[in-house]
Each structure stands twice: as C-alpha cells, then as structure tokens.
Design a protein that fits this description.
The structure is a homodimer. The first copy, chain A, is of the alpha+beta class. In chain A, helix 2 packs across helix 4 (113-127) and helix 19 (560-569) packs across helix 20.
Chain lengths: 602, 602
C-alpha cells in the first residue's frame, strides 16, 4: 500500500511542476546560476518519518530561512530580555530589505534583514569569532546532519551586499550593533550561504513543530518557549507583506528564502520543506507556495483549527479491591482489602498532558475525593506541557494537604514532571514514585493492610491446612499428602522453576518469598508461606514461567507422579483438589476480566 | 481540594483588582454609567466546566466582541466566497473606527468598524428584517442562553454614531453595502448593545476553542473552517495595532470591546471571558488584558506551543489468535484460528485523530501489510479532523485494492468518518462496520474459519463425546452421565439461566445457539452445540450471568445433586471432569491475560 501522503506529494508535485512562472533571484550574481527546473519537496512527521518527492536531495543556499533559526538561537542562548530589547516583533509593512527602523530605532522584527543582522550581531557580540561556527553547528543540529557552505554564494553576497552593509552601519549608529560591523556582516553573509536540501528544511521545520526536539535525531535543540516565539514572528512577519492573508488562507507558520526554499511548520503535526528557484514578485518560491497552500487547503490544516477530546486522557479510574496486585494475598487480607476498596484509587492517564487535560484530571481527582491512596500512572503520557506540570504541582499540594498519599508510576527522570515530583518527595512523606504501577498497587495494598491491622505475615507455616489447593481435606488426608512430599530448600536468588521445562511437580511454600517471573524478568506475582506454586502441573505438562527464591525458601515438593498414584487410591481427595484448582483459576479469571473491562471502558 | 485553576483566578483577581488605571469609555454617553470597580473573569473548559471569579455575573454590552461572532455567522451562512470578496483580512495599521478602506475600496478586515458594518450588511442583505433576530439568536447560542439587549445603550449609540454612519455611507458608495444603510446601521447598533456577562464570554470563547461546538450545551454552532478563519482575523487584527506583540507575548486569539469585555480563545484548551470597564489608550480593558497575559505567561500557554506524542494514538495492535472472540469455538476451529492468526489484525485507536496521528496509523498499517482482515476500532476516538478523514479514505482505498477486508467498529453515524465509510460500504463489499469490536472479531474469525474450510458447524450433536468438560471419559461413562441428565427444550428468546439464582445444574448444548449475557444486555459469549454452559455450578453456588436461547435450543441438563451422587460412585470420572473444568478456566485465563497485556503494553 502506498502511503496516502506520499501519493499526495507525488500528485501535487506533478501538477505544480508544469507551472513555469516566476524568475530566479538575480540580486546576487551567483544565485542566477540556479536550475529553474528544480522542484523538490519533503514532509517530516513528529515521529521522524520523512516523505520526499522530486529534487528533495538537491542542495541550495538557505538564505532568509536562516533568520528564523538564528533568532531562535539568539533567544535560547542570550535570553528573551536581551533579544527582545534589541529587536521588535511587529510586521514592518515594508519590503524585507527596508532600511527603515521603528520610532525607537530598532529593527521591526527578526524576519527583515535589519532584524536578522541585529540577531547575528547579538550572537557575534556574545561569541566573538566563534559566532558563525555556533550558527553553523546549530543549523546542522536542526537538520540532523552536518551542513555544507556554498563559498561562491558567500563571496558573491559579500561582494555585492552593500544594502545590508548600509543597514548594519545604521544599526551601529543606533547602538543596536555594538561590535565590529564587518565581522557581523561576515557572519550574516555566511549564514545565508549554508547549503540545505528540501529534506533538510523539512526536518528543521519539523523540529520547530515538535517543540524544539529534532524528531529524527531525538535531540532537544531549543526550548518550547523559544519555539513558540520563533513561530510567532514567522506567523506575523515570515511571509513578507502578506501576514493577514497567510494566516487566514494557509494558517501554517512559514519562512521563505530567495534561494528558492520555504519551510512551513505546523505545531505537533508536520514540518514541510520545499525547493524551487523561481520566485514570485514577493520573493517567494512559486511552486513552494503552491505546495504549502495545497497541503493546507486539501487537508484543512490550520494552526487555529484544533479539536481534541480531553476526556480521553483518563483511560481508567478505579478502586483497587485487593485483586489488582500481583502479590497473592491471604484470604483474610483479601477480605480486608475488599472491605477497604475505597481506600485505594488508581487513575491511568494516556496521551500528551496539556493545560486542558491536566485541568480535567484535577477536577476528576477532586470529585471522588475520599481515597487515602491515590495512584496516578503516567506510563502512557510521553509529553507533559509546562502548564500541566504547574497544575499537577497544585494538585499534589491540595491532595497531600488533606492527608492523601500520592503515588506516581510509569515515568522517568527525563519527564518534565520529575523536578517538581522530586522536590515533593524530598519535603513530603506523602508523595512517592514507583517505576511500575503494579509495584505501586502492591505497596498501597500493603499499607492498607498494615493500617487496618490485618497483616498476617506468616514468616513460616509448615502445616498444609493453610493451602487453598488442599482446602476441605481432613487432617489425616493432609498428613498423607505431606508424606508424599519432599522438603526442599532454596537460597536467595535461586531459580526454583524454569520456564519451558516439563512440569513434573508442584510446591507448597512454607517459609520465605518466591516470585513468578516472565523470562523478560517482569514479575507476575510474589507468593508468601501458605501458598502454592507450580500447581498448573496438575493440568499442564509444561512450565510457562520462572519461579525465583527472593529470600531463603523452604517448601514441600509434590511430584505429579506421586499425585497420580495418590489419585488412584484417594479419588475423592483428588477430585477435591481439582475443584480447588478450578476455584483458584476462576478467581484469577475474575481479576483478569475486571482489568480488561476497566481498560476497555474508557 | 480547591481546583488549581480556581485558585489561580482568585489570586490574580485579587492582585489586579487594585489596578485602578484606565478610564471608562465615554464616546457613547450611556457607557459612562458603568461601575468602574466591576471586575469579573470566567474560564470555560472543553468539557463544559466553567470557573468564575468576581463580578462574572454582571451584564454589560458586548460591543466590538460581537464582530468576531457576526463575522463567523456571515461565513457560516453566506459562504467564504461572498464574505471574503466583500471584506479583507489584513491588519489596517489604523484605529478601529478608521474610515480608510483598502486600495480596492474594501474594509481592511472584519474587526474594524468598517468591516463589521459590512458583515452586518451582508447578513441584512440575505435575511432582510430578520437579520438582527438571526444575529441575536446566534450570539445566544454561542453563550448557551437567551441574551438580553440594553435598549438605552442601543438608542444612545444610534443617537451618536455619526462616524459609523459615515463609514456605512462610504461602503454604500463603493457598493460594499448593497442595501438600506439605516437598516444595516440599526442591526449593527443593536448587535453592539447585546448584554453579556464574563461567564457568557467564556462560554462563547470556549465554543470557538472547541471547534465551534458549545461545550456546555453540546450544540455545534459553526464549522471548524469558520472557527479557524474567525480566530485568524482575531489573531491578526483582534487587539487593535498590537497584533505582532499580542501573538508574540500572549499568543491567544482575542477580541476586546469598549464595554469592558475581552474574550480569549485557545483552541482545544480554553475560553476566557473578562469584564472590567476601565480601558487603556488602545481601548482594551486594563484588568482584562492583565488576566489574559497572566494566564498565558503563568501556564506558558501559546497557540504555537503544542507538543503531543502521536504514537500514543495506537493503544493496541495485535493479531487475533482465536482467543479474542466471545464465541466459544470447537477445538478444531481454535486450532485453525491459531494457525491462521496472522489473517486477522486488530488495531485499537485512542484520542483525537488528526492529520499527524492518522498519517502515523497509515504507516503502521502499511508496515504489517499481510493480514486479510484488518479491524480498526474507534470507540476511544471521539473526534476526527477533516485531514484524518481524508487520509483514512486513502488508507481504505489502498487496503481494499490489495484485497484486504476492512472492518471498523466503535463509532456512530455522527462521526466525521461516517459519510466516507458509508460510501465505501455501498461500493465495496470489502468494507464493513460493526458497533462493537467483539462482534467484528467474531465475524472475522467466522470468515477465516469459513475461508479455510474448517467450519464445523454442528447443527446438532446429541453425543456427549464432543464435550470438552467430559473429555477422557469412556463411552460407558458418557452414557452413564447422559442417563443422569434431563432433556430440555427452549424457545427462541427464552431465558435459560437467571443471574443471581442459585446454581443447581449445568447444561450440555445439543442443538441451537445460546448467548451468555450480562444483565445490562452485553453479550459475553455465544455457544454452539457441543459446548457446555452453567458449568461453574460445579464450584460456585450462584449464577453470575444470564443465558438466553438465541434459536430453538435442545440441551441436556445435569443437576449438581445428580453430579454429587455420581461423584461418590465414580470419583475418578469426577476428578477428570474437575481437571477438564480447570483446563477450560486456564484457557480463558490465558485469553484474558493476553488482552490485559495488549491493552497495557502501549
């Protein structure tokens, strides 16, 4: 199956290729050498997939498109105060190479030449001779590969760029440029001569669309604040004197360059890069513009068109009833947990957490505000906005103040929630974190059992009357079973059962703790004295999971052969054991079905 | 627990209330009567929750804020071509009451008085005397309640609005207004005098943020296209000569009115309404602006700041292995389904489907491109963008072309996907829809069994050797069991087992089909001849689900009492039956655990 988007790009590429209007830029002699037939486009997605069509691998100079990224770099390195003091953010209403400044003698915005030169000047001022190297390296990180430079174009621009030279000296006159004017111009001319392809531009645009993280390399290059401000100036001033029309008709922040490139960046959706050297009267690539417009109009894409349903962010919201933990509980503990099921509330979230979704979550949490333990699982929430983190902080404050224990699971230290969470854990015993939800549930259940006095931790039980598999057997019958068993001892860390082995026995645990684990190491359950493991040997001839000794372990092993001999002489007892096994399985089935229902209900 | 957002509004309200700067509007005599101390704010969420603080219930006139909604109404009713021909979308660079027009003699945009009067004119032209009534009704639907009108303000505006009168005549001169000028002005003056509260404005703004659907009433008022274009003109021209700064610093489309109101609308996140009569030099409410700025800066909210992870849209992607259906299968059918498990692929989606998520889904579907049956479950995808619907259409085309069967489940006819889906179902036998995923799986499994010749539909089986519960018993033993049973007949639609009854027997199905159902009517399983139901009576004394005859049914009923008598004389057979029951349950447990894992893995 061909991808629908690849097909779309192919069709539009073929259609727009026939448009021969416009003219190759000629204000720099070197640019006139471009091949007017070239036409390439590329679309990069938020998971790093890159679609390409036509001449998407042909290099050309980035020119004015560099302005957006150098502005971003300046904001990121020098901070908003310094940059915003030097350069405005209002559309100028004039051509990109206008020498006019605002009434307080600043460049109107960073997308006109004056503002871009001021930006390069700020970086030159801070970095000195390393300024261009930093810019070059940053552009390369946006593209995800080391970009080359077209020295001929650079020298051509330097030789003929007198208008920019005039702008630079005017900025120097008003103290906007505080340093060596020729040095700044050299940086500016060289940054415009960096070579990119349509594919590079797509990845660069996608990095802006992806909150500043390059979706191909995974590298975070600039902060979300800088992204939103860079896209803001692209929106208000990126497409020359066409801002109102552009946002109205296309609605995707964009920037073009006289080299024939255009980037368009739709937050959380896509990055588009196009290349075709023939420009319209405004200096925008004719075919590139058409591609932007077609993408927007065909798919109804627009930065102000967005519809989510915030309610899908909660995928499950339920009380633990003593059935959710992987630790097998004693019957009395299970009874207590069932009686106290309202004490533990589990909320599983899914998707990006934004202002709106976290507000929704905060209200849902406040609604059923009675549980003592509130477990919030975040393993399906890969991104958390600053707003969501701030709201979460207040939710923690509110819930801990009323004495609730808040237990988070399923996120790591790279999460934006981590710093605030770590601070909470340091100052409040009421906030905890577990890697796995199952561990969090187990811990919370232990706390409930401990709190309400139901803990029956049998350090050791040698008597088989605790075994639910043997429930209903008489003392004599239990003794006969015990006689058939062999006592076994295992050291901490020893594997008692190997998955894949043939299943020839079952074990009654008398002392210590064992864990049932998958071969991946994931724990399915942990068992305490009085419980049975390996019991599926009675109906299945193969082991399906490992069992490990977590502590020194004592148990009684009953071989299937011995059971079979016993069965022939004690058929009633055997029938009873099988009925007990069926009951054990029926209980686990109820548990599993409950979980399926919980996860499917939302 | 106090909600974090309520707390935020309270704190900021208290802080900004002390700001006494600005002046009440005085260009209309009636407006000077406003109480300068008033200050209210309200925030409405996408699920229809409304936060309020201060004087949020005090009515005031909507004034220029009406421009955004009347523009939306014009676009919605008259179509983009007619409206966009009459009115531009570029910022004017002049005051809101400027009489200057564009070079082709159109108003610059719908947010200045000239553009707004032109809008009212378009509606007046189309609706005649019903124009104001339509506007009034539309504003009321945005607010979710019938709004009043301040006749004194209306009469005051009409008596003093000579500048607007001049603008209207100029528009008439250039044929932008084609009808009765006084009639249009009357509509315009009355629309400005509609009374709203900060709460009303919040809901109106939230309706724009929510893709045109009022989140409180649930009513769809305008289309997503109209929403995005309305927010576009608010962004480029909504806050007077401050567009670049506003999008850069606040980044939330907004519109203010001289009555002291402001709306701010952040797509998919929130709607804010504020009211405080004192205005700054630009004519914007001082405290209202502060509230907008505080909300944006504190929470880092900005329309161009957005980060989702598109990969969370697929919550499960797996092959059916014959274990997923609720129909109990014959062993030979199960074997066949297991062998052919690659034939059925199930993809469960979650969250809003956008351009980016549907593209991701399309690539995921193309990756494992071998299944004959592709089941796509959409019950957790409450919204689908136009782009997603377009891409989905291409995906269907591609998959059906290669011969795959596409089966959708979990959405209804109100979904934006429905029209295209219905068209597909009409022209292709390869596209189907089921309400429930479980029904889709069952149908697909039936198809696989049918296709590969494994269908063993026993219309009737009177012999018990097919029964897995009795597996391993000799012919004589089976005959003895049969002798203990009573033959039963049930009519279509008859209830055989009642949930809650005591469980005193089990049934061997010989002819017909029965369904196991919850009391809600949800079907858990359907059974065919050769299968057992009510078998949990062997270990549980209560019925947990209903069993209904879907067709005329014949079965053998074995009472638990009879089983118990039989057990005492045939303990080996009883032990065998219990072991078979344990195996049945173990199989179901594997199924349930597999499903839990699938739903937890993403």
């Amino acid at each position: 199956m061909t991808s629908p988007l690849q097909e779309f790009l192919k069709q539009r590429h073929a259609a727009f290729k026939t448009d021969d209007s416009g003219a190759v830029a000629d204000y720099i002699p070197e640019l006139t050498k471009a091949n007017p037939a070239h036409f390439g486009a590329s679309l990069a997605t938020m998971d790093g997939h890159v679609y390409e069509i036509g001449d998407s691998a042909v290099p050309f100079t980035i020119q004015s498109i560099s302005k957006a990224f150098v502005f971003a770099l300046a904001l990121e390195r020098l901070g908003q105060e310094r940059v915003e003091k030097a350069i405005g953010v209002e559309p100028s209403g004039e051509a990109f190479n206008s020498i006019r400044l605002t009434t307080d003698n600043r460049p109107f915005n960073p997308m006109v030449n004056a503002g871009a030169i001021a930006c390069s000047g700020l970086i030159h001022h801070a970095e000195g001779n390393g300024a261009f190297e930093l810019i070059h390296e940053t552009l390369s990180r946006f593209a995800g590969r080391k970009l080359d430079i077209d020295d001929d174009v650079y020298l051509s621009e330097r030789a003929t760029g007198d208008r920019n030279r005039a702008i630079a000296w005017l900025l120097h006159n008003y103290d906007v440029l505080k340093c060596d004017v020729d040095g700044v111009l050299d940086v500016y001319f060289r940054q415009c001569a960096v070579l990119v392809t349509a594919r590079d531009l797509a990845v660069m645009a996608a990095t802006l669309a992806n909150g500043g993280r390059n979706p191909v390399t995974g590298e975070q290059i600039i902060s979300p604040y800088v992204v939103s401000r860079t896209l803001s100036v692209m929106t208000s001033s990126g497409m020359y004197d066409y801002a109102g029309e552009w946002i109205y008709r296309v609605g995707i922040p964009a920037k073009s360059g006289v080299g024939g490139g255009i980037i368009a960046s739709l937050p959380a959706q896509l990055g588009l890069g196009t290349f075709s050297p023939k420009l319209d009267d405004h200096g925008n690539s004719v075919r590139g513009l058409k591609m932007c417009e077609a993408l927007s109009s065909h798919y109804g894409l627009h930065v102000l068109s967005r519809a989510d349903d915030i309610r899908t962010c909660i995928i499950a919201d339920y009380n633990a009833t003593g059935l959710s933990s992987r630790r097998n509980r004693m019957p009395s503990e299970l009874k207590l947990l069932e009686e106290r099921s309202g004490e533990i509330r589990i909320v599983e979230l899914v998707g990006a957490l934004s202002f709106a979704t976290m507000d929704f979550v905060s209200r849902r949490l406040a609604e059923g505000d009675r549980a003592s333990f509130i477990l919030i699982d975040l393993r399906r929430t890969p991104s958390v906005s600053d707003a969501a983190a701030l709201l979460a902080d207040k939710v923690i404050e509110g819930l801990t103040q009323r004495g609730a224990m808040l237990v988070f699971s399923g996120f790591d230290k790279s999460s934006p929630l981590w710093p605030s969470m770590a601070a909470w854990m340091e100052r409040s015993p009421n906030v905890r974190h577990f890697g796995l939800l199952e561990d969090a549930i187990e811990w919370a259940e232990d706390q409930v059992i401990f709190r309400y006095g139901g803990f029956e931790y049998h350090e050791s039980t040698s008597h088989l009357n605790e075994q639910s598999l043997l429930s209903g057997l008489s003392e004599d019958e239990l003794e006969e079973i015990a006689d058939l068993c062999h006592a076994r001892d295992y050291k901490t860390g020893e594997r008692i059962i190997h998955a894949g082995d043939s299943a020839a026995s079952l074990f009654f645990l008398q002392r210590g703790v064992v864990s049932i684990k998958l071969q991946s190491g994931a724990r399915l359950a942990s068992l305490l004295p009085g419980m049975v493991f390996g019991e599926m040997a009675l109906i299945d001839d193969k082991r399906t999971a490992d069992v490990w000794a977590d502590t020194p372990v004592q148990c009684l092993e009953l071989s299937v052969d011995a059971y079979r001999r016993y069965r022939s002489t004690h058929p009633h007892c055997a029938e009873r054991m099988m009925a007990n096994l069926a009951k054990l399985l029926a209980g686990r089935l109820v548990l599993a079905n409950t979980k399926v229902e919980l996860l499917s209900a939302y």
